[in-house]
Design brief:
By secondary structure, the chain is of the alpha+beta class. Helix content is 19%, strand content 31%. Helix 1 packs antiparallel against helix 2. InterPro entries: CBR-like, Cbr1-like_FAD-bd_dom, FAD-bd_FR_type, Riboflavin_synthase-like_b-brl.
Amino acid sequence: MASTLFKRLAKATTVSFGGQTKSTFGAIAAVTGGISYLYCYSSPNLAHLDEVKVEGSPKVALNPDKWVEFKLQDTARVSHNTHLFRFSFDPAAKLGLDIASCIITRAPIGQDAEGKTKYVVRPYTPISDPDSKGYFDLLIKVYPEGKMSQHFATLKSGDVVEVKGPIEKLRYSPNMKKHIGMIAGGTGHYSNASSN
């Protein structure tokens, strides 16, 4: 069996230089491969690495295809018109927000002429760590005429907000670009927000 392996390796690794065939490299490869083969399968004291079981993907709280209710855990006033909202979910799960993506929130604002619920829909980007488990934070500037921000301002602990996501803005992968330019923006006392 070992001799057959040597012959196959020697034939498979024959190298040609300047029209002449040299089997030196093939012989070396055959010997090395054969020794490795014999050592692996004949040594009684050989320690084999156990197969590492990779855990499945962690549980994700967000769903890009349907609205999911998240319960308001707590609020905090950051400035005269800006509030921090912490929403909770299963502590064993992570939010599932990708880099350069956002969530979409919706809130009922009445009914249309046919009696169907009308919604206001706004995108937001949580400011909490994407790997945080069991919660996410939104920092929202409350505008006097902002339909969604006014809705957030009326929420109390235990109330829910419907969320869908992640909504992808850019699929980023490591080293996809040599240079990346970034524009900083924010919500709160010192800057204006794009969503209200």
